[in-house]
Amino acid sequence: MEKGGQDEVIELYVRLRSEKLVVGNELDTLRDLNKAFRDNLLHLEEQIWITQQEKCIWRRFKYSDPSVHSQNVGFLLKTLQNTKFVLGHRVLSHNATLISEVLKVYLQHPQAIAECLNNVELGVNKRSTALSIDDMCRCIFNVVYGAALLPSDERIFLELLSNLISLQLSSKSDPRKYLRKGASVFCKMYSLFSEQLYSAKVFLTAALHEPIMSLLSQDEIFLDVDPSKSPIRLTPDERKRKFGLDENSVQYKEKLTAYRRVIAEKLFRVCLQFVKSIQEAVSCFPASLTWLVRQLKTSLLDRKRVSREEAELICTDMIFTNFICPAMINPEPHGIITDTPISHVARFNLMQVGQIIQALALCPYEGQPAYMINILQMFADNPMPDFVKSVLRNDAVTLDSMFPAMVENDEGTDIYSRRNFIATIEEASLLMQCLKGQGVDAISDETVRNKLKQLFRKLPEDLVAVKMTKEEYGTPKAPLPRSSSGRLRILADKVQNVAKTQHQKLLTNLPGNNGVSNEEKTEVTQPSEEVTEVLVFEFSHGFIPLGMEPEDKVMSNAKTRNEKSGNLENSTVKKTRFKATESVVSDRTGTTDAQSEDDEEMDEAEGVGSLCSSMNDNMADDDGDEDEDPEEVSTLPDNFSDMVPISANVSGRGSPSLSGGRTSGRETPFSQGGGNPALDQSVASMAVNELSVNNEYCRVLPKLPVTVRKQNAEGLEEKFGKFGLPTQDGYRNRDETYSLVSDSWSTDVVASDNEGINDQRQEQNLGPLPPPIPPRLHESQSTGQIIDISDNNSHQAGPSGVALPHPVSLSSRDRERIADDILNKYRSPMTPSSSTGPLFRPADSKPDEVNYEPAVAYFDPTNITKCKAFADAKRKIRLVLSSAENIPSSVTSKQATTTASLNVGNNDSDVTVVRLNELLRFLLAESINNQNRILSAQIREVRRCLFMFDNRGIKKLFRTLKDEHRARTSYIMYLQQARLSLLQLNSYVNKLLLRIEREKNLMGDCLVDLLVRYYLERRDKFIKRFVSDFSRLNVQDERVYAVERTLCNLFEQVDIEPIWKDFEQERLNAIKMTMDRNLMGQIYGASLYPNGEADVYRDDVFFKSLKLIASSITPDHPELGIPKKYHGECPWPSAQAEVAIINAYKAPRDKLACVMRCCQTIESLIRLASGRNVASADDITPVLVFVLLQANPPALLSNIQYISSYYGNRIEGEEAYWWTQFTSAVEFLKQLCNKH
């Protein structure tokens, strides 16, 4: 029995302390994860805008837009890198809020913006509006919908496209012609959406990557779909060599017919690869496009303007003509092909393949040209129509299933969503010009239309003219932390701007300045670097953090769920939604732990708080950046009207914390855990969470039913009368630091109401225990001091000359009545303006019974677990036990050091009570020795609270602590689930950032490729002369020297040409690599086969020899010696796929990179099979031999000779290692061929 009591105390002590450590660590982690998620999401929004601008530059340069040319592309890219994101209100003042509201309305109402855009298009077609449909659609797609990158934006954009289908396609008499024309808003928006959609890029890569690479690997011959044009693609010398001299001879015609047949067969085989690959990738077809195509078909059939076959034909056009075939011809922007240029011959062949694939998809609905019939008849089974039908049959695709809410807040808003509109001032002006005027009049929803008209009336006509100069708002800054109120930030900026303007005027008027300020002089002498200024318009309510709900709320929600579901063990596991909450004040009418633990939140800031306080204390740590809106109605009572702003440190005569711990700036010494223990017995915390607009947590004022505006201090006496403080029981511990101000309301005051009283408190005889306090009484009102509002004792002067009353003797009944009368002000739901009577009743008036709650005794021996004393003691014991540091070895010994009971009135000893007393004694001595005054005060208060309980009550208290500790498992699970959700969200955002970075690099590569081609076209004579001279050289060394000299000449020009001056070094290296690829592509045939037909014949012999022995050589072949532990990955298809496309690359550097990828793939598979971190060359070479034997790439020997000749002197490091492995494997294959 003794050992059991001892173990129970120590076990509870250890568990409470461990619980606090775990929860504190979880909350710290959650706070960091919330901050990381907020910052990453903002960075993602900024990178999306920059990437879309680079894509716009590429598109305009490609289609020869006058605004983008070769001389300014580098400058535009450099300007984008210097982009500064500025909060919109810093530039446009209050107009930024109006713009945010307009864009938010359009974002939330897809039908309204669809109707508006449709009307704008009608005006452009009638030439009544001078707008560009392309610019308007691109601006709306990028600014309003954030490029539809996040799931929430993608869903809303799909709704916009669906509304555009109903307005533009379904209403036309010939919707197919309208769609193929491609000039409508729907076509522009659909094109932007399909190009940006990530799932569409995945599908296109799965369907087109392998067949395109296979096409690039073949010989450079034109595969013309029209047989009559095949000879035209050949030069006269080639025609003479292939067909003969006499074009009218029978032999010439037979050879020409045979050549056409060969071309048709090659084209059929290439197209068959594309058809099979597209058919196999049907499962990867993007769900968003599936839903949109089905919406198109349904809308067309509902209008009954077209037949079912014609509706399917239009859907086929939308899939193939507007999506798959354009990507097939230009695969680079989609990321399908990125590491090799596509020559003009290969591009022509891709166009021919695209025509055939399109014809195959449309042939069931319409006839095809005569020259295509022969090719189409080769396809015995045409799967393309079935592909479209399989997409249209997918009925399971819905918006709700495609875009489930990941994490929602209390308002039902998905947290994983954008929070800002990002645009330049020019883009914002274009949007306002497009979306107002006649476009608004076309909106059918009257409420939306009226709201937009009201907002547009407040906006100026020209936003650019409203833009502030840099002298007015300073140097552009990055968006500030979203911790302050929007109105408060605007007000602060206005004040700062006015102050700066006045200061500049003062400097201007000083003698010797000649009317020019110092800042203006600096601008004249030091021109600033070109900076793109991008405005950030906030439209959300801010970042709502996850996992920051108070413990009592989480426990209450868990209890409610358990009650609804019955037995928790038999109930089904439901998906947890983490919802951010606003300020919550517990009624604290019960005695459960969740209702009494709020007091501990204030102690956590000092490092000694309990588990339940860790919630709000972590919020208090970040409280410094949170500001209150100055225009909000105050919830403070009228007697706080003489206080200074909330930024003060302490209230009344309360001294700063002795512990030196960090405080939130609004706490009294009592709220930090170092207050009077006699007062702490009835203290109940009202600190709550205020989930701010930007993941900054702060302690806020408690919500009171009565809302009163702040008033001046002159009417204080008339409203409240005089304050009297009764005497207290002398048995209580006394502290001269006493405040009537609530801990969670703490702020500086000019003159405290109780300063004059505090000087006399040690001389007063303290009265009996305080009367019963209503359960909703705040801690500053639950101190046992009753306010006397009579006017009889007004002769006593306070420190400020204010008359203070003498304490008067009142009965307990009178005290209860007066206290309840005062507290009715806070209980009343009526505001002072609506109340028919005074806020406070005189002492002799009889209150209405309907406004009172029955008083509950503070200590009730008959119902001990329901009284407030029980809840207070339980809370304080938990606070002390969870804040202690060491486990006392003396307490853990088997022999008791004392037999004295905590209750001196009861001499019955109990092991649990004795052990608890021993533990408290030890902790008290330890805190005194460590000079931890706060903890020592708390331990003394715990011992004092336990004094009023007998052993039976203490054991009940102890059991309740254990039960509640077990019940708090749900709170730990809540924190862990919140952490998991945040980890997932951060993972999603990081992946999106990587994807955006990859897309930005891809656009840069596409721009570089276009610029290099343009540059080489300008030097066409030089390139043609080099090709001509190269073809006349016969010695290989001379050819290598000619290539190196020409590349060196081109690279030198890169450093001095004006077209490249604005590019950074990384881009310059990419430019040189692209020049190398293009130059080697011009001489690829002659450099790959320097000996002509002899090299071709040698490669053909080696290819056929490998093909013969491939079936007889297995991984078990003794000459290979591949260990059996590696046979599980046989035949290493991924490595074969890498080396099989070596002929698709034309530059020797790219061919070597292909070899390296093959070897590295083998190495990774060997490490996977062996479980080791390193794979030796003896393990890699046998596997590489088998991979090359099975892949058998054509022209393997010529490729080795090509790389060694034109890149051999530049191979070093890792490249040299893998190249040695590769050439060794090829030499071993030669030996195998000789043997077999």
UniProtKB/TrEMBL annotation:
- Domain (Ras-GAP): residue spans on this chain: 153-362
Could you tell me which residues belong to the region Disordered?
508-529, 556-679, 757-813, 826-847
GO cellular component annotations, sorted alphabetically? clathrin-coated vesicle; cytosol; endocytic vesicle; membrane
List residues of the VPS9 domain: 1096-1236
User: What ranges does the record list as Basic and acidic residues composition bias?
Assistant: 556-566
Instruction: Name the family.
Output: Belongs to the GAPVD1 family.
This chain's protein is named Receptor-mediated endocytosis protein 6
This protein's species is Bursaphelenchus okinawaensis
